Amino acid sequence: MMARHVRGKDPHSGTTLEVAYDDTRIVSVTDLGVPADAELPYIAPGFIDGQVNGYRGLDINGEDITPEAVMDITGELAKKGVTSWVPTIVTAPEEAIVNALQVISSAREKDPITHAAVPCVHIEGPFISDQDGPRGVHDAQWVRPLDAQEVQRWKRASRLVGIVTVSPHTADAMRQIARMRALGVEVAIGHTHATPEQVSEAVDAGATLSTHLGNGISTTIPRHPNVLWTQLADDRLTAGLIADGHHLPPEALKVMLRAKGTERAYLVSDATALAGKEPGRYETPVGGTVDLSENGRLSYVGTQLLAGAAADLASGFRFVLAEVGLALDEALKLVTSTPARVIPSTRPGLGHLMPGAPADLVLLGSSEASLGQVVGAVQSGRWVAGGPE
Questions:
Q1: Which one, 23, 145, 152, 199, has least CB within 10 Å?
Q2: 101 located within any domain
Q3: Which residues contact 132 (CB under 8 A, 6 or more apart)?
Q4: pTM for the complete prediction?
Q5: What is the residue-averaged pLDDT of the chain?
């Protein structure tokens, strides 16, 4: 198999890199040792989105979800530089969760590119807070207590179960979380009204992640202690953050990233089926009537309450560059190496630009006006945006 080559600017050193790749892996990465031309785009590993509910009208949680829809989401996200993504199933009856898992598994079996792009599935709920506010838009009738036996049944239906978001507010939370971890599942804390003490106990029991930290909690909380400080301070937790400019204001995002650092934080889109759609008013299965504004804010009609996210991960990455002040090479960790470390995957080198890593690449604008903008993308060795092919 003949290798193809692409050149780009090293985000760290600014020198010219030449990357050789085939249909599956990066073959070599060569630093040519010369300053890159001003017009040459930066080159980086493909972006990884750890939380995707849907995209461009396709809904992972829809009753009519099909393998073809999952494959289509894979293709559409790749055009935005997201070459790996984690389908996210929200609170629902057990049979609906199992059905979605089986549909995603079928998509991976049918399509080698989707097989490579989807490392695992995130199940966000149903073991979350039953209170208004922390519950978010999750359907209250299907919220239920933590149950590791149900997780075991999900695992029997599909080996793809990789992350489960829970609220550790119950007396048996530590025992249930420990049992989930014994099943090989990563446990995330989210959509919770747990106390700081209960959060710490959940981490002691094996929880390693925070689901979209700063969201999925009560709108008002004590100054201190509270669940935000506890999760930000605990270095055992790596936090997912939504950087669409609506879920977290810039100053909150900046403080959270300073607290966690780029090794213990990663960006997620939390995109819904309305992501990528034109602004307007829509009817949704969960939440009813919503407005999608020109600036990408998705809210319940007539209110300022958020109804999910409608921006892709690349938009969040550019928001961080513009509003937080991170250097490009540090910001890239939030969408490449850090999510690759915490998301269960069997792909060696995922999220890194190195020989043997997946043949997933992004090219990013390098001018002042285009910095961080995806101008080209390679997924599984083929150009899906920009490029010569």
A1: 23
A2: yes
A3: none
A4: 0.97
A5: 95
